[in-house]
RNA sequence: GCAGUCGUAGCUCAACUGGUUAGAGCGCUGCCCUGUCACGGCAGAGGUUGAGGGUUCAAGUCCCUUCGACUGCGCCA
């Protein structure tokens, strides 16, 4: 018999149907047994009536979280047994046959609860169970819906989704790279991308003009509540734009996303306020101010643009002996200064005062995105590298392809990247991004379910021409 | 790398100033129960107190080491 979703059972009253479901709860009454069956669309009460000893015996065998196929007749409940306000509270399934598809042993923790009360390590070890809980189901499903909404929206706006490589090249500065040994080139390594920054800019050279991607980004740095070694950015880049264009499009997208998928939320101020980096530091002491009028209102969203960041800051060489120059960049070396400061850059004048076109977007005290207009001219980009004190050969090795591309017809362009997990965390009022990720890692970067990272075999090492000489860190 | 909090039954927790046989709720097992929906009733099983060492007549409790989880700092273009 064709499977009917539990959410659609109300349309099948007085008929016999089959469902595929988990046993959510069981209430054994002696002669009668009551169940709640659950599938991805909802829950329904099942009742095993007295009289059929065989069926009763099968019902007794079932325990929570067993997977079953149930055939039965959908009845309107007797009036006194209607559960008001509950989905399917006015119907029940009178069980006629039970097929046990997969028996569940006793669970390590109850899933019919707010699993945030369960120890984090147990949840992560049995993540597939944790994900069955109502809250996690909602988080993961809504995330998928939002993903789809953004895809449709940007596609309508003439964007093309392009996948960029995961096996790429290690670059100096920035976060520590995760690296992958290259079997065919002993001693050489790929790096996993910290972001698709260079690829997306080169897609502008390639004439894609409007690009986006839900991009996996990997950084080998220590975790936080809002940081994981592996995370998702909504990455985008546009040609022939100025920063107002990028900001306006993203602002509109965020507003529509919220109104469509989180109608219970209220955005504090539209258009989003703009605060300069200087004002933010003076007024709030950080560059991701929480400007909510009422910090106790769980449905208040206070978006804010932070602009006018300094491009460069002096390096403290005692901290980082690898730094060659007197200056380092605050955000992104590929950024372009604001138009008024281009001449200062080119003449290397008043370097400390040069303002970058960088714009960050913050929400309730978290940075949820950042971007800029890029330097698409070879001379300007070279000047930045010179100020940063990079050696000529280093520029050639690491950025030669960018400089070449920028001498072969690259339009002015700019973009932005959202920290998608952080945005979802805030939209769901979750205390950390693990709650909106299907399979997150622990603070120490371990996957407790898969038990990674793990050692590899001698054969694998040999194929990679690698030999291990483990040293204790000093 | 550093700091803080925590680690007791399958889960969530309790156990006073170091003091008798480490308790409770849920879950689990068995029996009873014909309208339950946090079902109910009776009975029962279940512990290397994360691990190792030390102090003490005596350690879940104090000290040291170690492992793990979480939170923050450093770090994170």
Q: Give the helix level as a range of percent.
A: 25-40%
Model regions low in confidence, pLDDT < 50 over at least 5 residues: none
Count of DSSP helices? 12
Span between termini: 66 Å
How would you describe the oligomerization state of the chains in this entry?
single chain
**Overall radius of gyration:** 28 Å
In spatial order, strands of the major sheet run: 6-9-10-19-18-17-14-12
Principal-axis shape equals: elongated
Give the DSSP E fraction (strand runs of 2 or more residues).
15-25%
> Mean of residue pLDDT?
93
Topology, number of strands: 19
Biggest sheet architecture: 8 strands, mixed
Structural class, from helix and strand content? alpha+beta
Architecture overview:
The chain has an eight-stranded mixed sheet with strand order 6-9-10-19-18-17-14-12, with helices on both faces. It is α+β, with helices and mostly antiparallel strands. A hairpin with a 2-residue loop joins strand 17 (359-363) and strand 18. It is built from twelve helices and 19 strands. Helix 9 (378-387) runs antiparallel to helix 10 (392-405). The protein has helices spanning 53-61, 120-125, 127-130, 134-156, 197-205, 243-261, 277-284, 342-347, 378-387, 392-405, 420-427, 458-463, and strands at residues 16-28, 33-39, 42-48, 67-76, 91-102, 160-161, 179-181, 189-191, 210-218, 230-239, 266-267, 274-276, 300-301, 303-307, 312-314, 327-329, 359-363, 366-373, 413-419. The model has no long low-confidence stretch (mean pLDDT 93). The chain is elongated, with a radius of gyration of 28 Å. The chain binds one RNA strand of 77 nucleotides through residues 25, 27-34, 36, 45, 47, 49-50, 63-64, 77-78, 80-81, 83, 86, 89, 106-110, 113, 117-122, 124, 171-176, 194-195, 197, 219-222, 224-225, 227, 328-335, 432, 442-444, 446, 448, 473.
